[in-house]
Design goal:
By secondary structure, the protein is an alpha/beta fold. 30% of the residues lie in helices and 12% in strands. It has helices at 74-81, 153-165, 181-184, 190-193, 222-226, 354-363, 365-382, 385-401, 413-425, 431-440, 460-487, 496-533; strands at residues 7-11, 26-27, 48-59, 89-98, 117-121, 169-173, 232-233, 235-236, 257-258, 261-262, 265-266, 310-316, 326-333, 343-346. Strands 1, 2, 3, 4, 5, 6, 8, 12, 13 and 14 form a ten-stranded mixed beta sheet that branches. Strands 7-11 form a two-stranded antiparallel sheet.
Length: 555
């Protein structure tokens, strides 16, 4: 750490692997080997992982601690750096602390292009915002004061251009009232997807309009309820993927898909903030960043579609005698169709703090594991399309080389290889995340051809097996070479360019195979339709006698 740089620390650095073996990510060393069995494969020297570089930016009372009473992100950091999760991705994290002499995006030696994602956890103006304006608290006009270290115009320009030109992914969270507004209320899309100011109607610290989600117990203080084993229930939104050309099924957003099912339990809190409902987002509000121009929510060319934020989960308040009130909890923006970065905003950072997680970790581990899946899912979903493709390629390659010779063979064909490799990848990737990685290769940016939700659709499992199987068919020969040579005690060198090219060709093969499968299905469905039209109608049942047994009444 450079003195006065504002960086608290760098985590997950080169001790995990070396850039010299980069394959769109980097090679994995033997670090973290104690947890390898959860991968579903054995460790071999030829695995690679996609590296996702994340910058945490924090201010105010937020720390990287792990205690029961800490506004700390330490447990989130532990989750991201845990190598037990998967072989095909690694998260590197650095932390920038905004204080009077702390981190700035404009400081000497800093380059935002060194990062793939920036996660903003904003607290300022801190406790000064707990009271309402006119009652001892600060108002919207105060959030730009220098003592609260707001993002300046030059910093906002750097962040905005990086989000637009480099596809940088952004996460942001505050809490009730103005908490987090100094840092976040002017960041493109973040500013219009979540309530940061009184002008936007932020939920207050106290009173009937607060968003309290605590699960109340008898003779227990609110502070203890924050750290107990009882999470709130949240309500994921099930919808179709509007950008998928062929998948009309209903499903929760990939952020809320865990290893053990849908993630519908979150830490509770006495006064959460709020994201903004889909139809209330101001799509055309001027950005007001000097020197930066362009629409905040661009329109895709040539399709003419305009991606917009979507709420993916709701919460229910628990404090009112009038009954629960629903409020939007998480919102996302998918910039893929317009080639800009994705965005996730959360109603409160208390979903992330150690003080809200220690009880779940110690006494309700299944819910804690769900939150760990959520944190990793945010990082995975915010990654660029190229990174998602790289993760799929790395996962497929690892499944092939991380087993004994003969487990995978070209004789299995596309379908056989696809089925087996998908099963292996599924031990580390939640179902919706694997779906997301595969669909990255299929999205065209064009509107879906099936917006009506037809019940006749290709199963996602079939699509995954075709795409993964086609990539595996291209890679299996290279993987067998490494396995056989290793079994003979000989060292081998990865041909990075060959592997990358085979992955690319395999993806193209998969698209053609999927097209052929759909064409074959179309023919079969047409024949089935013709057969059904020849079936007699209900008159077939005329005159049919059905005898039903009659039970004798008993006393």
């Amino acid at each position: 750490m450079v003195e006065n740089s504002g960086f608290a620390a760098s985590y997950g650095g080169s001790e995990i692997g070396t850039a010299g073996n980069d394959l769109g990510g980097r090679a994995i060393s033997e670090a973290g080997s104690s947890a390898r069995p959860s991968w579903g494969i054995r460790w071999v020297p030829w695995l690679w992982t996609t590296r996702i570089r994340i910058l945490f930016v924090i201010d105010g009372r937020i720390t990287m601690e792990r205690g029961k009473y800490d506004f700390g992100l330490g447990l989130v950091l532990d989750t991201l750096l845990d190598p037990a999760f998967a072989w095909w991705v690694r998260f590197d994290v650095e932390v920038g602390v905004r204080e009077p002499n702390g981190f700035r995006f404009t400081q000497d030696g800093f380059d935002i292009n060194d990062y793939d994602q920036v996660w903003f956890f904003g607290d300022q103006p801190g406790e000064d915002a707990n009271k309402l304006p006119g009652m001892g608290g600060v108002g919207d006009d105060a959030i730009g004061e220098s003592k609260y270290t707001p993002l300046g115009d030059d910093e906002l320009g750097i962040v905005a251009r990086w989000m637009r030109d480099e596809g940088g992914g952004v996460f942001a969270a505050g809490d009730h009232s103005l908490l987090g507004a100094s840092m976040c209320h002017r960041i493109p899309r973040v500013r219009t997807m979540r309530k940061w100011t009184y002008a936007q109607g932020v939920p207050p610290f106290a009173g009937a309009d607060r968003n309290e989600t605590l699960q109340h117990l008898v003779n227990v203080t609110a502070l203890e309820e924050e750290s107990d084993r009882y999470p709130q229930r949240i309500f994921p939104v099930y919808r179709q993927d509007p950008d998928s050309p062929i998948i009309p099924r209903l499903y929760p957003h990939p952020l809320l898909c865990g290893h053990e099912g849908v993630i519908d339990r979150f830490p509770d809190h006495m006064h959460e903030g709020s994201v903004i409902e889909d139809d209330e987002v101001e799509l055309n509000k001027p950005l007001g960043i000097p020197g930066f121009s362009g629409p905040e929510y661009p329109t895709a060319v040539p399709s003419g579609s305009r991606p917009r934020p979507q709420v993916i989960a709701y919460g229910l308040t628990t404090h009112s005698s009038l009954g629960p009130r629903r409020f939007p909890l998480i919102s996302v923006y998918d910039g893929d169709p317009v080639s800009i970065g994705r965005v996730v905003v959360d109603s409160t950072w208390h979903h992330w703090f150690s003080m809200n997680l220690v009880g779940l970790r110690g006494m309700a581990p299944v819910f804690y594991r769900g939150m760990q899946d959520y944190y990793r899912n945010v990082a995975l979903w915010l990654s660029s399309p190229a990174q998602r493709a790289s993760m799929l390629f790395g996962a497929t390659w690892g499944a092939l080389v991380g087993v004994h010779p003969g487990a995978f063979d070209a004789a299995l064909g596309m379908w056989g290889l696809g089925e087996r490799v998908v099963d292996v990848i599924g031990q580390s990737a939640p179902q919706c995340i694997l779906d997301e990685l595969v669909l990255t290769l299929l999205r065209t940016g064009a509107p879906s051809v099936n917006q009506q939700g037809s019940r006749l659709q290709p199963p996602q499992r079939m699509i995954n097996e075709i795409m993964v199987g086609s990539i595996a068919m291209r890679l299996v020969g290279l993987s067998q070479h490494h396995l056989v040579e290793h079994a003979r005690g000989r060292s081998t060198q990865l041909d990075r360019d060959a592997i990358r090219e085979q992955c690319r060709l395999g993806a193209a093969d998969g698209i053609r195979a999927l097209s052929d499968a759909l064409a074959e299905g179309e023919v079969r469905f047409k024949a089935l339709r013709e057969d059904l039209q020849a079936v007699p109608g209900p008159e077939l049942l005329d005159g049919l006698s059905v005898d039903l047994p009659v039970e004798e009444p008993t006393d």
